[in-house]
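Case 304 in the screening queue. Each case pairs one protein sequence with one candidate compound; here the compound is guanosine-5'-triphosphate. For every case the pipeline is the same: read the inputs, emit a complex structure as tokens, and attach any notable structural observations.

Predict complex for case 304.
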Amino acid sequence: MVNAFDKLKASLSNTRANILGKISRLVGLRKLDDRLLEEIEEILIEADVGVRAATRLIDKIREKSKQRGVTESNEVIGILKEEIIEILSREGPALFPDNAAKPIIWLITGVNGVGKTTTIGKLATCFAAEQKKVLIGACDTFRAAAIDQVEIWAERSRVDIIRAQEGADPASVAFDAATAAQARKVDILLLDTAGRLHTKSNLMEELKKIRRVVDKAAPEASVFAKLIIDGNTGQNALSQVKVFTEAVGCDGLIITKLDGTAKGGVVIALAEELGTQVDFVGLGEGIDDLQKFDSKTFVEALFT
Ligand SMILES: Nc1nc2c(ncn2[C@@H]2O[C@H](COP(=O)(O)OP(=O)(O)OP(=O)(O)O)[C@@H](O)[C@H]2O)c(=O)[nH]1
Ligand SMILES: [Mg+2]
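Case 304 output:
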């Protein structure tokens, strides 16, 4: 069996080639000077690390290499690694805060097709394996297929599900699910929502309504909005986070489809520009293809 670190490393191989691969080739050939640093900055920006993070990283390399008297250009990679860990290491709230009132409710949001339903299946499996009592609320009532999809995941992970007919009001399903979560004393309720373009204001209003209804149905619950971002998205991820945060808040990100993409640098851009913590990363379509995010492990996998 492949261990978790090897799996993460294999998943990040295209992103690694896009960042470490290109930088390694460059520093192998050139001396350390301003021109080299500019080219490294360009590589970082092209790899979706974001302009702000790229600028900060280059400034730090310049500063630290001066301080440490670094003259060999390949030593900049070590500094880069340290600084990326620094950017990614902002501590956010724990997934299950000790003092959080039960039930914990995660409102899973995101644009179309990012992997919300799949991630709920993976999370349900993961939490059930930790002996938590899990409930799923199928609030994506747009498509019958979506309800069936979440039901299949629920069966696989042997957790209960609250569902309604296709076309039902998603907020009413959310209400029923939140009420049931409270009555059944579950540890965590995962609410699946329909994918929606963050630029469509009526759909964002619907999401706000779901949030309001949940707060009302389970006033004592601890409600967290978790936003799913597709790792292939590139810089558009930043505006998705901003708009969803304005609508319903964002207490954590889950970045999916990091397997295969070369754009995984976006994780760094999101941390630097928005400071939102990453809770999990999705590394494939299977039920086990989800890992808790750890900044040091992530950077280690990206750089070795
Ligand atoms: N490679 C890969 N595929 C994934 C991952 N997560 C989800 N997918 C795939 O992405 C596709 C969409 O996943 P869904 O879970 O249906 O996405 P969704 O956000 O619920 O979609 P809508 O409800 O239509 O908005 C499916 O084919 C999944 O198997 C991942 O981490 N890696
Ligand atoms: Mg879905």
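Case 304 observations:
- The pocket of magnesium ion (ligand 2) is lined by residues 116-117, 140, 146, 192 (CB under 6 Å).
- The domain at 4-88 is CATH 1.20.120.140 (Four Helix Bundle (Hemerythrin (Met), subunit A)).
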